[in-house]
């Protein structure tokens, strides 16, 4: 024990954060990993993971304690998502999307709205999904056409939302809709819609390359009438709330990417040590060693950038927009590269479903696409840099 030991938390995870990682890892390996392959194979919701996460209060760890939640900070939430994604990316979408869907309420909702919906989420009465994208409004989310029309003490919503993660499983939906068609992004408002509201229905599940355990469906809003007090913030502030939300939740996508990359690296290392060719372990060949070294280096760089972004998310720093985009973009590119290389390490075996790395490779791909494509992240980063954000760091 040296004189500097008391300062250690300044340079790494606190003891509490390290304990959270250990607890989540134990749950993930015991209760989630055994079902990851079958969940992917059958493209079914990971109900075993959902039960285990709810029982341990990791299903929506970000909800503040005042609403009955675990009150996890942004870094703790990242650790939860990273450790789950290490064994099953589909399952990691449970805490990730619960944060994405409910954060608009937490950021901009009335106290009544927060008390009602965050309490229900924390208690496990239903998950929360996020409805921003539409068939013709993807990267250009401001081009949405879903309408919300005020009618007395109600709003009536009509439109189609697409690529909605955990649609049909979640009870609650944060829906962005146009309240003033002449004001483009300043005419968009946010609302809480419930699965049970009349006029809400869902499309068929998308047949996807990866994250097959997390249902992705269209959400149809057909004359859905909701009480006016279900608006999140003031009229016209929905797009700003949506973008502020993404600044925080892109860090959780970075965490998924780090997790799946670490899972693939773990498996590749174990395999390389055990696999014999030419009379020795393939880990003895320098070509293999250099490949593994690059994988390990990049995973760690992605992890540190993600944790740095999580710190900014927790504090609400002015450079969060840059760091959230940078972490998400870098970590997802690393995840795609590392999982692809893990398949290469296993050779022909890596290409089969008998081994987990091909699933990890397929799952990793989505992290480069959702919550803003990596092309959009680069636009976001460039705008931040040109506005001088790094000069303030």
Give an overview in words.
With 393 residues, this protein is α+β, with helices and mostly antiparallel strands. 50% of the residues lie in helices and 14% in strands. The protein contains ten helices and ten strands. A four-stranded mixed beta sheet has the order 1-4-5-8. The radius of gyration is 21 Å and the shape is globular. It starts with 14 loop residues before the first helix and ends in a 7-residue tail after the last helix. Residues 1-6 have low confidence and may be disordered.
Topology:
Elements: H1 15-42, H2 47-55, H3 74-85, H4 89-108, H5 111-122, E1 128-131, E2 147-151, E3 154-165, E4 172-178, E5 188-194, E6 200-202, E7 216-227, E8 231-232, H6 238-274, E9 276-277, E10 280-281, H7 286-315, H8 320-346, H9 357-365, H10 374-386
Parallel strand pairs: 1-4
Antiparallel strand pairs: 2-3, 3-7, 4-5, 5-8, 6-7, 9-10
Classification by helices and strands = alpha+beta
Low-confidence runs:
1-6
Biggest beta sheet attributes? 4 strands, mixed
Helix content: 40-55%
> Count of helices?
10
What's the average pLDDT? Answer: 96
Helix and strand pattern: HHHHHEEEEEEEEHEEHHHH
- The largest sheet has its strands arranged as 1-4-5-8
Radius of gyration (CA) equals 21 Å
Distance between the termini: 33 Å
* Strand fraction: 5-15%
Number of strands: 10
Write down the overall geometry.
globular
């Amino acid at each position: 024990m040296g004189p500097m030991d008391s300062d250690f938390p300044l340079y790494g995870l606190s003891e509490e954060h390290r304990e959270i990682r250990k607890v989540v890892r134990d749950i993930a390996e015991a209760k989630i990993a055994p079902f990851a392959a079958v969940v992917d194979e059958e493209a079914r919701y990971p109900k075993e993971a959902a039960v285990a996460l709810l029982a341990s209060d990791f299903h929506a760890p970000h909800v503040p304690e005042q609403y009955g939640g675990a009150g996890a900070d942004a870094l703790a939430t990242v650790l939860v998502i990273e450790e789950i994604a290490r064994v099953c990316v589909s399952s990691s979408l449970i805490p990730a999307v619960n944060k994405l869907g409910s954060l608009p309420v937490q950021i901009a909702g009335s106290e009544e709205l927060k008390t009602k919906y965050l309490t229900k989420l924390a208690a496990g009465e239903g998950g929360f999904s996020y409805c921003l994208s539409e068939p013709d409004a993807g990267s250009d989310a401001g081009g949405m056409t879903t309408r919300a029309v005020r009618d007395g003490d109600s709003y009536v919503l009509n439109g189609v939302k697409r690529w909605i993660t955990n649609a049909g499983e979640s009870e609650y939906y944060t829906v962005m809709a146009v309240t003033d068609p002449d004001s483009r992004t300043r005419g968009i408002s946010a609302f809480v819609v419930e699965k049970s509201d009349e006029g809400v229905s869902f499309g068929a599940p998308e047949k996807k390359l990866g994250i097959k355990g997390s249902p992705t469906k269209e959400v149809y809003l057909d004359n859905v009438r909701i009480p006016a007090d279900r608006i999140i913030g003031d009229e016209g502030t929905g797009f700003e709330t949506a973008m502020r939300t993404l600044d925080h939740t892109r860090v959780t996508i970075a965490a998924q990417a780090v997790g799946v990359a670490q899972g693939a690296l773990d498996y590749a290392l174990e395999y390389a040590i055990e696999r014999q060719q030419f009379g020795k372990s393939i880990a003895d060949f320098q070509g293999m060693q250099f490949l593994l070294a690059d994988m390990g280096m990049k995973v760690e760089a992605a992890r540190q950038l993600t944790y740095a972004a999580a710190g900014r998310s927790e504090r609400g720093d002015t450079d969060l927009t840059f760091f959230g985009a940078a972490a998400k973009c870098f970590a997802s590119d690393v995840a795609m590269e590392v999982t692809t290389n893990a398949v290469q390490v296993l050779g022909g075996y890596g290409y089969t479903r008998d081994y987990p790395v091909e699933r990890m490779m397929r799952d990793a791909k989505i992290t480069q696409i959702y919550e803003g494509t990596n092309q959009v992240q680069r636009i976001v980063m460039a705008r931040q840099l040109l506005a001088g954000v790094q000069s303030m760091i």
